[in-house]
From TrEMBL:
It comes from Cystobacter sp. SBCb004. This is arsenite-transporting ATPase. Its EC number is 7.3.2.7. Keywords: Arsenical resistance, ATP-binding, Nucleotide-binding, Translocase. It comes from the Bacteria. InterPro entries: ArsA/GET3_ATPase-like, ArsA_HSP20-like, ATPase_ArsA/GET3, HSP20-like_chaperone, P-loop_NTPase. The keyword ATP-binding applies. The lineage of its organism: Bacteria, Pseudomonadati, Myxococcota, Myxococcia, Myxococcales. The keyword ATP-binding applies.
């Protein structure tokens, strides 16, 4: 069973360094390890102090950098041309028809979310193949990380509700559109390519939300703004059904005479972080005297982070939400939502899905068949857990 850890955090807190160090520690313990970047601005090669040409030559495929350790920085354009040329070509032609240059059309043909889908496809593929024992994902900054988590449920919804309908409608509308307009609707090869893509990410949502396989580690710094963003990320990952099992507070300043006030402020924030995220383990990393690049220094950081413990260990395995059967044909749903206020939470139903909204983020939770005929009759927020009761309508 492949163990997956997603490392997320605000931009600039050192999540790439923590990702790389985690992978180095696992490889040293004999795990077949891959660390892969989901960030558009790849920096894993910089963290390992590797020549960028190695990855360009390898066309975005995994590159071995040490025994048991491979690194992957995905080349999105190459992947689109290699596997889904029908989709890429159609989008390029469509954009060219609007008057933009061919070069701009080729760049713009990479739609928002494409990077996320391709990255998730690779992750799903590696887990199904059992090629690695341990995969570390260096996520984009927090907001973009939540986007790629959300895209899994969005795609599942589209596959279930819209894909076959859209494919059939376009099939019948294509001849008419060709006669009446200059606008070409996509050929069926376009939908066939999408269908292949959907097939390659089938099951990814279950993988991401299964704490036996996948957990999230949040990297923060001891600063108020970063701490608040880390708290929001914790809330949203829980809302999407993913299990956060550790928080890493990076770059703690030494308690020297000149930095005493900074250190005191950081110590106070670390205590707040411990209180907020309890019972999650909170690890502290110092600000190192030298930039942490290259395997030797990454190994030194890993020693301080894990202190000889197994980096693949699961610190928390409880699911963020679960259904329970109650007396009288009622069901309950408990969703762990730390830090959310009752006034922020909006519940809605759409067919077989319960939609939970917090601010601009929303989560689709597919209801079990036994719960679908029921209505949500009560919802209370108790100690960071939203409890919803379902019962037969009267």
């Amino acid at each position: 069973m492949t163990r997956v850890i997603l490392v997320s955090g605000k931009g600039g807190v050192g999540k790439t360094t923590v990702s790389a160090a985690t992978a180095v520690a696992a490889a040293k313990k004999g795990y077949r390890t891959l660390v892969m970047s989901f960030d558009i601005a790849h920096s894993l090669s910089d963290s390992f102090d590797l020549d960028r040409k190695l990855f360009d030559f390898n066309e975005g495929l995994p590159q071995e950098v040490a025994p048991n350790l491979e690194v992957q920085e995905i080349d999105i354009q190459h992947e689109l041309r290699r596997q889904w040329s029908e989709v890429y070509d159609y989008m390029s032609v469509l954009l060219s028809s609007t008057g933009v240059s061919d070069m701009v059309a080729e760049e713009a043909a990479i739609l928002p979310g494409t990077e996320d889908v391709i990255s998730l496809m690779y992750l799903n593929k590696y887990v199904k193949e059992g090629r690695y024992d341990f995969i570390v994902v260096d996520c984009p900054p927090t907001g973009e990380s939540l986007r790629f988590v959300n895209i899994t449920s969005t795609l599942q919804w589209y596959i279930r509700r819209r894909f076959n309908v859209d494919r059939t409608l376009v099939k019948f509308a294509r001849p008419l559109a060709t006669k009446l307009t200059n606008y070409d609707l996509p050929e069926d090869t376009y939908f066939a390519a999408l269908e292949r893509l959907f097939g390659q990410i089938q099951g990814i949502e279950s993988l991401l939300t299964d704490a036996n396989h996948t957990t999230v580690r949040l990297v923060s710094s001891a600063e108020k703004m970063v701490m608040r963003e880390t708290q929001r990320a914790y809330l949203y990952f829980n809302m999407y059904g993913m299990t956060v099992d550790q928080v890493v507070v990076n770059r703690i300043l030494p308690a020297t005479r000149h930095l005493e006030q900074w250190n005191q402020a950081q110590t106070a924030y670390v205590e707040q972080i411990k209180d907020y995220f309890s019972p999650l383990p909170v690890a502290r990393l110092p600000l190192f005297e030298q930039e942490v690049v290259g395997q030797e220094r990454l190994g030194g950081l890993a020693d301080k982070l894990f202190q000889n413990k197994d980096p693949t260990e699961r610190y928390v395995s409880a699911p963020p939400y679960q259904f329970t059967k109650k007396q009288g044909g009622r069901y309950g749903l408990s969703i762990h939502m730390p830090g959310a206020g009752r006034e922020e939470i909006v519940l809605d139903r759409q067919g077989d899905d319960l939609i939970v909204r917090v601010g601009s983020f929303r989560r689709h939770i597919m209801l079990p068949r036994s719960v679908v005929p029921l209505q949500a009759v009560d919802a209370v927020l108790e100690k960071g857990t939203l409890k919803i009761d379902f019962a037969h309508p009267r």
